[in-house]
Design a protein that fits this description.
The complex is a heterodimer of chains A (340) and B (353).
Chain A (H helix, E strand, L loop, with lengths): L7 E16 L4 E17 L3 E5 L6 H8 L7 E7 L5 E3 L5 H4 L6 E4 L13 H11 L5 H14 L16 H13 L5 E5 L7 H18 L2 E6 L2 H7 L2 E6 L2 E7 H6 L4 H8 L40 H5 L5 E4 L2 E3 L15
Parallel strand pairs in A: 3-8, 3-9, 6-7, 7-8
Antiparallel strand pairs in A: 1-2, 1-4, 4-5, 9-10, 10-12, 11-12
Helix pairs in contact in A: 3-4, 3-5, 4-5, 5-6
Chain B lengths: L7 E12 L2 E13 L4 E5 L6 H8 L7 E13 L8 E5 L8 H6 L4 E4 L3 H4 L6 H12 L12 H14 L5 H4 L9 H13 L5 E5 L7 H18 L2 E6 L2 H7 L2 E6 L2 E7 H6 L4 H8 L47 E2 L2 E2 L5 E2 L8 E2 L2
Parallel strand pairs in B: 3-8, 3-9, 6-7, 7-8
Antiparallel strand pairs in B: 1-2, 1-4, 4-5, 9-10, 10-13, 11-14, 12-13
Chain lengths: 340, 353
């Protein structure tokens, strides 16, 4: 690794992804779904950024744009190449992206549909190697064996098919495949939400261990806040296509500065029958990103909203060092996630 | 607590599936009670038999599965009026497609399924589907026990929608399930489950597929409705947080057997079985230390065809007693005033294998 510690590996600036709403025979564009609307953040080398939000908030679209599985509508995706220069992935075409593909890899949510059932582990895990030029089968077999050992599976398994493995084992296979090309940035989209509780802890531990051994950088997309808290250095919260809060994990969980973040945290059922926390639930539903409300997008569901919130859209401001929130009242509110 | 007799009493239930590869004992001797108005949580990981138990109660176990032995004693109403009496029937003995079972399913025992998207028909409006259920089972709504007219059933549905917090119920009743958001769909499902005033509601992972904020709304709603109608609930989930918030009595299952059961406070604050303890340790907390390795349960869930001999948890258990847990199956025994566990750390009574 040539980059010094603390240098950003990824810098997302003003990322936008709009989907057109078309109508009629001539597919007239009648509106835009602003799935991702002006999102900016950086990820330092070796860091884990947790990206949370409810379904439809744009967290998956954001991660797909970074992977360049889709083309963004605007903004920059600056990635530090192995040579040390920052390159913008956003405007690149297929051929230009090719050299960067091995460096950014993905771990999928569902370990049952993300592995090809007709391919053995050797072929599933080895395919990225083949595509990236490792033509020699012997060499590939050795590398797959090494990868399987790395994720805690026996190399002898490589000639079996995915159906022979449990959910947790399959997720390990998916991790081995993501790591096959020696990526520097790994995008994990809900990697443990389909797993059983006892297996979830094993996979989280594996991700933490791999990160320190291989100096990986993670963008960890999830909706489970206790999992995000466990694994992330910093947390970004999205609501209707926008970042509403971004802060170091301890800061955001000790004192969230955005009422939406606090509401999300309070909604997590506490595994303790003596601490009842259901009932203070957030009212209403997530607005459509095709027709967001005026002012602050969160104002119709916010119990602190005043006239200004209904009228003016708040900018994302730095409230404390490294702690950003998109709320007019961020300084005044004292949001405690624990309640009586 | 009132010493009312249990509404549902499952006694030594065995459900097995005869597969080509061999016999899978999906539920292997489960016993628990549900008191009227109580919420019982059944918690366990995939393959522990929690959903099959639920299906057995409703007589919906699919081929090649069958209820091999055991009793499912349910106290049903003998008539629609409040003054009518009750009688105990063994649901395990009733034919699945018989008149009696069909009169119980939906009317006396209702189900909130996991996937509200898959549970509603996409080609009928949600209102029509609830009206249909009401016309079939809704005798409870009339004191004389006669059938409901379509108009009355529709009015009841509108009221139910309002009850479960669906705004604009008169319009929403004519919507198709795919026109509703996930939260609304689950609310409509709850309205349907409650439509015939069941005395027992089975909620099978009702909030697994939805967001945390919507989950909190749905859980709050279920609690409120339970207070209002006094319905008993069997709450099936793998989420220990949901169990802690919803249940008053908890049954912990693993590979078709009950590992431990007891009042929710004892299960969370004085867990006895090593499996319950390990499960509670392995969940990340909102308040714990971040970025340190979580204590894990080593190994993985065994394949149903490779069921371990002896205690099903012994290959993953830190407290395994060699020669004991590896060969004999511990039975579920009282180990504290109200707590039961099947573990040789607390007693030496084994079940016949």
């Amino acid at each position: 690794m040539t980059a010094q510690a603390g240098a950003p590996l990824l810098e997302v600036r003003g990322l936008r992804k709009y989907f057109p709403i078309v109508k009629g025979m001539f597919r007239r564009v009648v509106g835009q779904v602003r799935a991702v609307d002006d999102v900016s953040f950086t990820i330092q080398e070796g860091e884990t950024l947790g990206l949370v939000g409810e379904s439809g908030c744009g967290k998956t679209t954001t991660s797909r744009c970074i992977l360049r599985a889709m083309a963004p509508s605007g903004g920059q995706i600056l990635f530090r190449s192995r040579q040390g220069a920052m390159v913008d992935l956003a405007p690149m075409v297929r051929a230009e992206l090719r050299p960067f593909r091995p460096e950014i890899q993905m771990i999928f949510q569902d370990p049952f549909s993300s592995l090809n059932p007709r391919m053995t582990l050797l072929d599933n895990v080895g395919e990225p190697l083949l595509i990236n030029g490792m033509r020699n089968r012997r060499e590939r077999t050795d590398r797959v064996a090494e990868l399987l050992r790395l994720v805690g599976l026996r190399p002898e398994f490589m000639h079996r098919f995915p159906h022979a493995f449990s959910g947790g084992q399959r997720q390990r296979i998916g991790i081995a495949r993501a790591l096959s090309t020696n990526p520097r940035l790994v995008v994990a989209d809900e990697p443990v939400s389909a797993l059983d509780v006892s297996v979830q802890a094993q996979v989280l531990n594996l991700l933490l261990e791999l990160q320190s051994r291989l100096h990986l950088t993670f963008l960890f997309v999830a909706h489970d806040l206790s999992v995000v808290r466990h694994i992330s250095d910093r947390v970004a919260v999205m609501y209707v296509g926008q970042l509403v809060e971004l802060a170091p994990t301890s800061a955001i969980f000790e004192r969230p500065r955005h009422p939406y973040t606090a509401a999300l945290m309070r909604a997590v059922p506490v595994p303790d029958p003596r601490a009842s926390n259901i009932g203070g639930a957030l009212k209403g539903e997530v607005p459509s990103p095709a027709a967001p409300p005026s002012g602050c997008y969160f104002h119709p569901r916010c119990r602190f909203a005043d006239e200004r919130c209904r009228r003016d859209a708040p900018p994302l401001r730095e409230i404390a060092p490294g702690h950003f929130a998109r709320c007019h009242l961020a300084e005044q509110l004292n949001l405690d996630i624990r309640q009586g | 607590m009132n010493p009312a007799p249990p509404l549902l009493s499952v006694r030594d239930l065995h459900v097995s599936f005869a597969m080509d590869e061999g016999l899978v004992r999906a539920v292997d001797g489960a016993s628990f009670d549900v008191l009227p108005g109580q919420t019982v949580g059944i918690v366990g990981e995939s393959g522990c038999g929690k959903s099959v138990t639920m299906k057995a109660i409703l007589q919906l176990v699919e081929q090649p599965g069958r209820i091999a032995s055991g009793e499912i004693l349910f106290r049903r109403r003998t008539g629609p009026a409040a003054t009518d009496g009750e009688e105990v029937v063994d649901l395990a003995r009733l034919p699945s497609r018989g008149v009696e079972m069909r009169a119980i399913r939906g009317a006396e025992i209702a189900l909130i399924p996991q996937e509200p998207m898959a549970a509603f028909s996409p080609v009928h409006t949600v209102g029509d589907q609830i009206v249909e259920a009401l016309q079939l089972h809704g005798r409870q709504w009339r004191t004389d026990g006669g059938p409901l007219s379509r108009k009355d059933a529709r009015q009841i549905t509108v009221d139910l929608f309002r009850d479960v917090g669906i705004s604009m119920p008169e319009q929403r009743i004519d919507a198709y399930s795919w026109q509703l958001s996930g939260g609304l769909r689950q609310r409509a499902m709850i309205a349907m489950a409650l439509s015939c005033k069941p005395r027992l509601l089975i909620a099978d992972e009702p909030t697994t597929a939805i967001d945390v904020t919507t989950q909190a709304q749905v859980l709050g709603l279920l609690r409120e409705l339970q207070r209002k109608y006094g319905t008993a609930i069997i709450f099936i989930t793998h989420d220990l947080g949901v169990i802690a918030q919803m249940a008053s009595y908890v049954v912990v299952m693993y590979l078709g057997r009950i590992m431990e059961e007891g009042p929710v406070d004892d299960i969370f604050h004085a867990p006895k079985h090593p499996y319950t303890r390990a499960l509670l340790r392995s969940i990340p907390s909102l308040y714990g230390r971040a970025r340190v390795a979580l204590p894990v349960i080593t190994g993985s869930l065994p394949h149903p065809f490779n069921r371990p001999a002896g205690c099903p948890f012994h290959p993953r258990c830190g407290d395994v007693i060699p020669g004991m847990c590896t060969t004999r199956v511990p039975s579920l025994q009282n180990i504290a005033a109200r707590q039961q566990a099947s573990c040789f750390l607390y007693h030496d009574k084994a079940d016949p294998a």
